[in-house]
Amino acid sequence: MQECKAKIGKAHVYNEGNDVYDVMLNQTNLQFNNNKYYLIQLLQDDNAKVYSVWLRWGRVGKVGQNSLVSCGGNLAEAKDTFKKKAFGMSPSPRRTTASSITRATSHELHGRGRRTPPIIGSEEELKEKIALLEALSDIQNAVKMFQSSIQSDEHPLDRQYHSLKCQLQPLDSDSNEYKVIEKYLQSTHAPTHTDYTMTIMDVFAVEREGEKDDFHSQLDNRMLLWHGSRLSNWVGILSQGLRVAPPEAPITGYMASFKISDGPVVSTVTNMPQWEI
Questions:
Q1: Secondary structure class of 37 (helix, strand, coil)
Q2: Pick from 63, 58, 17, 66: which is nearest to 41 by CA?
Q3: Segments of the chain with pLDDT less than 70
Q4: In whole angstroms, how far apart are CA 160 and each of 53, 142, 165, 209?
Q5: Which intervals hold domain PARP catalytic (predicted)?
Q6: Pair (174, 242) in one structural domain
Q7: Residue 70 to residue 66: CA distance in whole angstroms
Q8: Same domain (yes/no): 270, 141
Q9: Which domain holds residue 244?
Q10: Read out DSSP for 243-258?
């Protein structure tokens, strides 16, 4: 339930099985600079079969206006009010259940007030916006993890570490694994990348929860690969693993042809200034 102050702690969004009576409609018109929303929810009181329909509408980014339509104990009236509003606002109304109503979300990348947002006019601009959305998605995952563990009595750092569900073990510089990685770093720096050098700061052994069971130890055709990524991506990588972009996604800046940004040459996968390995 979103911001119905009269019903906070007293009611919940009504559902029938998988049919949830909760809709967010969006209207975007670049020509006339219209970017509006319309929220519709059918609410049921927690302690009684009393129903109401909560409406909130206005310009995206603004509080807008709202209305709470009381339907008493008449569920049929509440459903009818909900459907009339939902299908009445849609350009292509359909006689289906509430589960078929898709939640449409507008992604506003920059706060522009009432100014008309610029039209993306080139492939490079499109790549920039896609990269920004990817970074925001990873940041959102990190925030969700933080919020899910905020009620714990643990120390905040321990809370965040445990929410990763991933063990991180620092390697000693005298260990065999550390020496192999150090040698691999120096021997795979491409001769054309002469404007910088790299040194190891820390090496961590990583074991994600459940990943050991999926590891096919009997296979011997393995290769060590480097991975470079923005710092904002690493919470998502450690908690969820590397995610391969779909084939239709445009390349957003990595040098190698791999859609997962891996490669055997360290200076190739780190040749972006914002990346960490």
A1: strand
A2: 66
A3: 1-2, 30, 90-118, 145-152, 244-277
A4: 39, 9, 9, 15
A5: 155-277
A6: yes
A7: 13
A8: yes
A9: 128-276
A10: -PPPTTSPP-S-SSS-
Of 51, 82, 100, the one marking the end of a domain is 100
Which of 20, 78, 82, 72 has its CA nearest to residue 50? 72
- 150 and 265 belong to one structural domain: yes
Q: What percent of the chain has pLDDT over 90?
A: 21
Measured N-to-C along each axis, helices 156-163 and 123-148 cross at an angle, to the nearest 10 degrees, of 120
Q: Which is nearest to 222 in space by CA: 257, 262, 259?
A: 262
**Comparing C-alpha atoms, which of 217, 214, 220, 221 is closest to residue 241?**
214
Residue 185 within any structural domain of the chain: yes
* Alpha-carbon torsion angle 214, 215, 220, 223, nearest 10: 110
Q: What is the pLDDT of residue 34?
A: 75
What is the model's pTM?
Answer: 0.45
Tell the residue number behind the tokens 């929810």, with chain if given.
Answer: 41
Residue 112 lies in a domain: no
Same structural domain, 156 and 265: yes
